[in-house]
Amino acid sequence: MTVRPTAATSAGGGRGPRPTPVGWAVLATCGVLLGGGWAIGHPEPVALGVTGLAAVAVALVGTLPSPRLTAERRLSPTRVARGDRAGGVVSVTNLGARPCRGLVVEDHCDGAVVSVRLPPLPAGATVRADYAVPTNRRGHVPVGPLRLVRRDVFGLAYRSMPIGAAVTLMVHPRLHPVGLPPSGREHHLEGPTSDSANEGTMTFHTLRDYVEGDDLRRVHWRATARTGTLMVRQMADVSMPVTTLLLDTRHASYAGPHSGADFELAVDVAASVGYAASSRHFPLRVCTGSHAAGQSGGVSGRRVDNAELLAHFSEIRADDEGFTRALDQVRRAGAGGLLAVVTGWAETDVAGRIAGAARNHEHAVIVHVGERPTDTPTPSGGIRRAAVAELADVARLWPGAKR
To answer: Deepest in the core among 122, 124, 239, 295, taking most CB within 10 A?
Structure first.
């Protein structure tokens, strides 16, 4: 569990005392009573109006003193899957000589205000409050700023004091273990299948200049004599299996009654397949039409850090124009390995548009997510199809593959 505390912050200053919505309603009612009673000459409404004004005035004076407080806020964890639990913890300490009552902690979590009422805080005491942070939206979710609100006993006035800056909660897609089909593991006598293969000891790849520390047994004496420069053999291991992911981000591909949920499931499926590849340290190409991982057009044929991959999928949004760019990325990608296309049931042209790229890969599959509509015809084409109605179904994409 990752915990990131904010710096301890003193609560003081902030906005001065103000009427609450109830207090404003009381003031408006008192104004009507005073005006109406004065106009008709009846003392009773005037007396009620004066009493109400006095009550609001006393409430404002009661919240005027600024308590001496320090607060520390922690977010635990700071990275969570969509729908999983995340929470905030606030510790408030009373540094004053008098007890504080009527304290409420308010935190702004993804546009919503979460309020936690604190018990009476004696002088020198510390109280801790826990609250849940919503995690139903992917992305970097802002949490904060945090405020301490002091209200009077009758809820007529309040004073707001800032006690903590905003922090960020990263909500990444849900993941499920998935195996990958064996691909790209053949031993090539002529060398590795791509330049992305790791330098190793198995296969001769090319000649290069000698670098201090190289094994002298790899010196190529003929090339050294011909060029006058010490040359060594660069050896490489067999190319690792490459996974190419294409995520269909078009709104029209998820046109069913649960289009939003289907798109989120598509992101979860794509992230699960990509996470399976990155966890095995296999090269990965992510084609989503957006900028990712420091490379234009996404991650391209290299090993990807899990955190880097999850951060990329956390920010994916439905984008009609991005799909065209993603198709271009697939066409420019190298051959071999696995090509997985994740889309909805409403798509009609994916198979035809990736047919050429599919022939260049050892395995190609189009994954349809969500509940299949009853009036949907059986997709045609020579590319293998798979259905994922819920995230756990990704475990059956490639039967027998090790997870």
So the answer is: 239
